Amino acid sequence: MPVRNAALPIESKGAPPSLITAQRLVASGFADWIILLKPRVLTLVVFTGIVGIVVAPGSLHPVLVVAAIFCITVGAGAAGAINMWYDRDIDAIMRRTLRRPIPAGRIAPRDALAFGVALAVGSVLVMGLATNVAAAAALAGSIAFYVFIYTIWLKRRTPQNIVIGGAAGAFPPVIGWLAVTGSLDVMPLLMFAIIFFWTPPHFWSLSLWAHADYERAGVPMLPVVAGAKETRRQIVIYTVILFVVSLLPWALRQAGIVYGVAAAALGLGFLVSVWRMVQDPQDASGVSQTNDAPARAAFKYSILYLFALFAALAVDSFM
User: Which distant-in-sequence residues (6+ apart) come within 8 Å of 70 by Cβ?
Assistant: First the structure.
């Protein structure tokens, strides 16, 4: 099992804890601090938050819109930084993550934690001042859920980590909606549900071709615990549920025909992508006999799917 609190080259033993200084920022490299924020993940998170702002009824001053988007971005990045701090032991074991700034020794763990906490607190305070308490509370809740519920509690304990923990990534459109309106309605809950049910097939497709990494690190992702065949079955189930849920905004007249057609077409495409993965030749244990290309393709399509689906929702709101 991985050992926590392993010493890293950049950290000076015996030195008192301190906030990150400009000197350390320069020494570590600005790019490494950006990497701590998980920028590739941020792109999708921020986009869904922007769509939440766009589809919400009412209006918000452009300066406050920018402030809300900035807070969603910084808050999500803060959660990512704290996640990297906590997961530094397993990140050092997995091939996908061993070059991250903390396990590679380019940023000290305590500095990464201070960085993440400072950004988290700052983003929530600014959101509350710029928009309203409801949006700030939702942002704080999303950060806390990702850090405490997913990262610390679920990730290393249960193969359902992604299912329950997926709620953290479903908050941004709700936060965006609240920033404009200050109150909940059916539509933000539907956007939340779409991302919630999208998360398992998205991450399980990734874990199918990265299962060796998770197994090596002792993370009980579904392919490690239940095997690839059961994982593929669960991906199909959740993709079917997602297909139905994605049509609800149109069925409940929360969105128009543009979104409805897009949701149906994109959902069918997702089902086809997943079906191809299921049809990949497997041995008795469910391990692919060929390669991981179908799982990679399903993972890549899932990203395109969510971008396109929320883009259609935004376009439909202008029709």
Answer: 123, 126
CA–CA dist 187, 194 (Å, integer): 11
pLDDT tens profile 134-187: 999 999 999 999 999 999 999 999 998 988 888 999 999 999 999 999 999 999
Overall pTM > 0.85: yes
Residues 6+ apart with CB under 8 A from 135: 68, 127, 128, 175, 178, 179, 182
Provide the residue range defining the domain that includes 192. 185-319
Distance CA 251, CA 213 (A): 41
Task: Answer with the one of 184, 208, 239 that is the final residue of a domain.
Answer: 184
CA distance 136 to 123: 8
Domain of residue 79, CATH code = 1.10.357.140
Any domain includes 17: no
Q: Based on the fold, state whether residues 104 and 74 are members of the same structural domain.
A: yes
**Are 207 and 154 within one domain?**
no
136, two tokens? 């700030």
pLDDT, tens digit, 9 for 90 and up, residues 250-261: 999 999 999 999
* Same domain (yes/no): 125, 196: no
Do 50 and 66 form a contact (C-beta atoms < 8 A)? no
Residues 140 and 91 in one domain: yes
Is 286's pLDDT higher than 70?
no
H/E stretch holding 237 reads: helix 228-251
Cβ distance 155 to 219 under 8 Å? yes
